[in-house]
Amino acid sequence: MFETLSYYMQFSQVRYALIVGVLVALCASLLGVTLVLKRFSFIGDGLSHVAFGAMAISTITGALVSGLQPVIDSTNNMIIVMPITVLSAVLLLRTGRNAKLKGDAAVAMISVGALAVGYLLMHLDIFPNNGNVAGDVCTTLFGASNILTLTANDVGFCIVVSLLVIAAFVFLYNKLFAVTFDEDFATATGTNANVYNLMIAIIIAVIIVISMNFVGSLLVSALIIFPALSAMRVLKSFKAVTLCAACLSVFCASLGFFLSLLLETPLGATMVAVNIVAFGVFALLGAVKSR
Amino acid sequence: MSQLICQNLTLGYEGQKILSDLSFSVESGDYLCILGENGSGKTTLMKTILGLRKPMSGEIRTGDGLNRRSIGYLPQQTMVQKDFPASVREIVLSGFQGQCGLRPFYTKDEKQQAEKNMALMGLSGMQKRCYRELSGGQQQRVLLARALCATEKMLLLDEPVAGLDPKVTQEMYRLIEQLNKEHGITVVMISHDLRAALQFANKILHIGDKVFFGTREAYLRYAAAQREEGSCTHV
Questions:
Q1: Which residues of A touch B147 (CB under 8 A)?
Q2: Which residues of B touch A172 (CB under 8 A)?
Q3: Range A2-285: architecture per CATH
Q4: Which of B46, B120, B158, B191 is most exposed, with minimal Cβ within 10 Å?
Q5: B12 — phi, psi (to 5°)?
Q6: Helices and strands, number each (H, E), in chain B
Q7: What is residue B204's predicted lDDT score, i.e. its pLDDT?
Q8: Structural domain spans, chain A
Q9: How far is A244 from chain B (nearest CA, A)?
Q10: How far apart are CA A147 and CA A153, in angstroms?
Q11: CA–CA distance, B218 with B214 (Å, rounded to integer)
């Protein structure tokens, strides 16, 4: 088993993929607690659909720009996908909290709409060689083997963005706590909760975009939610839960990565499966502990 | 000079008035109880004072060195908090967040002050306990300690004894009285409990169809007159 693994690890592509996977999982887990407790999970879910639509748009425009050849260069795609997703994050946050406009319905509208438009765009007959649309769609939704086509460029981009996300999180940590625990109190005593809510939405959008290539847009939410939910079963302080979620996420990502190499299963789904098992274990631990 | 002056306030939701032309003022060291039926707008009034919502018309001013942002607030508990993984210390410290501005971490002074406030509320030794596992009374004391971190001058309390048993209720009232008498903190409290209000408050604001604002003694006379009037109309 270890021989197989060390054989794989000789390839720089595999190493790149591992680095990116661990970083992405780490970032995703950081905001999980806030997302779960603020009932913002819907944003994570909605955004991943939007990101899919954005990905379709960028594939199309990429194709148009580069002489009708679909480009699968994720860093190029980011330039289009990132702003669209961030913008949608802001929109979703605004509408999601607006009781008058039936927030959750608006979210459903935007996210499912983006999904449909994305799929439609991918089927447009502008690609000379669009034989593998189904494959592309599947890749974008569920993540793919194409992480092994990551270039040093992609890895660099991902590392920089991840570090930015982590830095932002550390800087905002106490503010996030205050705003998550009691928004009214925070606002009343002079914390600008709206600004921080906006930042949460933006950071989540960024995380979703960087993890999309990796685990696919439908599975991203799992990376965000699961570690936090697991840690919350057992631990009692915000700090402990956050740290535990981060460690757990890195562990599950690595384990899922190696398992998917060994068993030749799809990466994103394997990672999520490992997270589900971890949640089961933590839930059990929590139940035993509280007795 | 009053600490807090509300002048001709009209409050409401989406064009529907629930309170109109309300005026009152709070002096330093006051213990003001806000009474009124459910739905008469007590919590809305409190949120307006705190700047969480805008009045439809009217004006709220602060004075006597009180800043609008340095009012401590004890809200009614929300659902989110019921399953929030947070330690007592983390919650109390978050009372300082408003004063942090862009500074990402709490200072040593703030941490010490938080310890003091926890001790004052009888929470020593519980700093690491999980908030959601505390009893109702303990949770209220945690939130009160947090409110103290946000203010040295004025506390707004929204039904601080809701859901507490009689013994814990007394203890809570005692703590609040201590803050008012010994620490000179102005208290503005929403209450359902008329007896406690008359026992502790020096001023009463009664909102509803008829509005009363004045001292405790004046309120007693007013209430007696109301009863008489009521019995007259019944005959």
A1: 185
A2: 104
A3: Orthogonal Bundle (1.10)
A4: B120
A5: 175, 175
A6: 9, 9
A7: 92
A8: 2-285
A9: 12
A10: 13
A11: 6
